[in-house]
Amino acid sequence: MNRQSSYSVGIFILIAGFVILLGKLGVFAVLGAMFWPLFILVPGILLHVLVFGRVIPSIALIPAGILTVVSILLLIGNWFGWKPMKYLWPFFLLAVAVGLYEYHLFGSSRSRYLWLASVSLALLSVLLFGMTLLWTWGAYLLAAALIVLGSWLVVRKPRLW
User: Fold this and answer.
1) How far is CA 107 from the centre of its chain?
2) CB 3.0–4.6 Å: which of 76, 107, 112, 145 could bond 58 by disulfide?
3) What percent of the chain clears pLDDT 90, i.e. is strictly above it?
4) 24-50: b or e for each residue (b if 16 or more CB lie within 10 Å)?
């Protein structure tokens, strides 16, 4: 075994030892628990790169957009807890809208129906998000509006006819 191959084998064994040690210490479990949505984000970005590099057809922009947006939502849930997902769930529809819109914008098809479907899904997503906020925060908004109206009625000066 010459010096160069001995060096390469030594580096390989050293890296293998560090990987095993870090695995036993739980580093990969922590990283995996925090960053597992990256396994969805990476294929989404890779599909974008392959489409814009003209390696695969532009129809792949639909799943690319969906995967990218969904992975961002999952990262938010994973990092900040899953409670905000009760407000953010309509954005899963937005993921489909983004994929369709990207295909309309950069794909070979400039179909009006594709644009209409993407805009409709985006508007539905925003509408459902607004309804979700009103449903959960609506009682607070109603209470605040009643307090403001009641305060205004109490402190205003009445008109004399």
Assistant:
1) 22
2) 107
3) 48
4) eeeeeeeeeeeeebbebbeebeebbee
The confidence band for 31, taking pLDDT boundaries of 50, 70 and 90, is: low
Q: Taking a C-beta distance cutoff of 8 angstroms, is the pair 111, 90 a contact? A: no
Q: Which pLDDT value is given to residue 147?
A: 92
The residue to which tokens 């004399």 are assigned: 160
More confidently predicted of 114 and 25: 114
- The pLDDT of residue 4 is 67
Place of tokens 């644009």: 115
Query: Does the pLDDT at position 118 exceed 70?
Result: yes
